[in-house]
C-alpha cells in the first residue's frame, strides 16, 4: 500500500499504519503494521506498507481495512 501525505507545518509526526485484508465474513486473512516518520513541511510525500497474502487466499479477499494513527514526534 502506498500512502501519500502532506505536512503543512514545521512539526514532525510519526504515523502508525495497520493494513488488514478481510474475507467475506470479516475474518482477517492477512495484515501488516508499519511505522513511518512524517517530517515537517513535506508536501505529497509517501509512506509504504507491504501486506503478504498467500496466493490461495486471493479469491477470499473481500475487504481492505486501513487504520492510521498520527502523533506528534
Structural overview:
With 73 residues, this protein is mainly β. The protein has one domain (2-72). It is 0% helix and 53% strand. The protein has no helices and five strands. It is elongated. It starts with a strand and ends with a strand. The model has no long low-confidence stretch (mean pLDDT 88).
Concise summary:
This protein is mostly beta strands and 73 residues long. It is 0% helix and 53% strand.
Q: Which key phrases capture this entry?
A:
73 residues, three-stranded antiparallel β-sheet, two-stranded antiparallel ribbon
**N-to-C order of helices and strands:** EEEEE
Beta strand count: 5
Indicate how many domains the architecture comprises. Answer: 1
Q: Any idea what the shape is?
A: elongated
Low-confidence stretches: none
Kindly provide the radius of gyration, computed on alpha-carbon positions and rounded to a whole number of angstroms.
Answer: 15 Å
Question: How would you summarize the topology of this molecule?
Answer:
Layout lengths: L1 E4 L7 E10 L5 E11 L6 E4 L14 E10 L1
Antiparallel strand pairs: 1-4, 2-3, 2-5
